[in-house]
Amino acid sequence: MRIMLRTCIFLAGVFCSVLSQGQKVTLVNTGVLNSTQTTSCSVFDPMIINSISEEQLSGTVTARLVKSDGGEVYNAQAKIEINKGFNSCKNIIGTISENTTSSIGVFFRQNGILPEGDYNLCFDLEVSGEKLQSCELVSVVNSQLLELIYPYNEDEVYVKRPPFSWYFLGNSSNLTYRVVLKELKLGQQKIEALEQNVSLFQIENNATTTLSYPAIARDLDSTKKYIWQVVAITGNQEIAKSEIWEFYLTDEEIKPILVSDDYLDLNKVNGQPSIYVLGVVKLKWQENFQTKSAMINIFKPNGRKLKLGEKSTLNVKLGTNYFDIDLNEDGGLKHMKKYKIQIQSKSFQDGSISINFTYLDPAIYNKK
Predict the structure, then answer these.
(1) Out of 7, 68, 179, 307, which residue is the most buried by the measure of CB atoms under 10 Å away?
(2) Using one digit for the tens of pLDDT, what is the confidence trace for 76-115?
(3) CB-based burial of residue 25 (10 Å sphere; 0-12 exposed, 13-18 middle, 19+ buried)?
(4) What is the pLDDT of residue 172?
(5) Tens digits of per-residue pLDDT, 149-199?
(6) Model pTM score
């Protein structure tokens, strides 16, 4: 049998390939791997097989992921039926046999996620007595897998010991997190601060996507700025790193805000009042018309409307209606930021009432 290496180029969407005499099949590796795709043939996605044979051919294809240091991460083998023209992983038949024992390979097999880094992705095809091979370097970047939530980027916090939260976009089974907080000194870039400055804290093996401010760490200083980052880890292998966010402690007086637990009576509202909302906005009004629903919208200061889904419609009845609208579940509101809520109903003189409110996140406010 012959081992034949083929180089193929894509130019303006046209497949360019040269077949040697008697050769019926060429193997192409595009080198574009979606490391977060979890379909059964995702690792075979960069593979393209071109056949000029009028007959259907049967072959065996193997996908191998090899780290830059030479260690094999993942190995999968499958049977494939090759028709005339272009063939892909959709031509694989039967079960894909996965053979891997490395911690990275096991995590990839279970979650469809590779750690950041460079890999050699190789395809080995055996068909009609020939062996073809194609290897390409693939680079995996997972910065979008790990999203920071709070403290917000380039924003202020109102407590000296704020909580931290983030979100992992993939399957987070078997993951732990490293959370780092450092001071951002005057004139420094965020990456410089992360690499050079002493940590206020570095928490290892955090099992959840939230972190209370560590008891051993000193309070934040309102004269300084800070940066933080989260790293997702399985075993001893880093899977993904978040962006680096910066924030600062406001120098405004940190004091409790009085929040009313009463329902705001919209029938008694004049103009556009301003209130504080601790997670849930509580409204009531007397409905005098035979209508089944009222509409609500929430707007940011720039006028953009927040998506409320099913909460944008309130079921109403004749008489007094009471509504507890939970804003915590939507995830789009930020602590101590100002918004406007608009309620539309025939019972209001102008057809709608608007209320300005400052949103208080209970998870942050209750830390005070």
Answers:
(1) 179
(2) 899 999 999 999 888 988 888 887 777 777 777 777 777 7
(3) buried
(4) 72
(5) 888 888 888 888 989 988 887 777 778 999 999 999 999 999 999 999 999
(6) 0.57
Structure-block tokens of residue 48 = 């393209």
Q: CATH second-level architecture of 264-365?
A: Sandwich (2.60)
β-pair partners for 88: none
With the CA atoms of 346, 348, 349 and 350 taken in that order, what torsion angle do they form, in degrees rounded to the nearest 10?
-80
What CA–CA distance (Å, rounded) separates 306 from 297?
7
Angle at 38 between CA 34 and CA 41, to 5 degrees: 80
CATH number for region 143-249: 2.60.40.10
**CATH architecture, range 3-139:** Sandwich (2.60)
Paired strand residues for 125: 61, 132
Cβ atoms of 60 and 98 within 8 Å: the answer is no
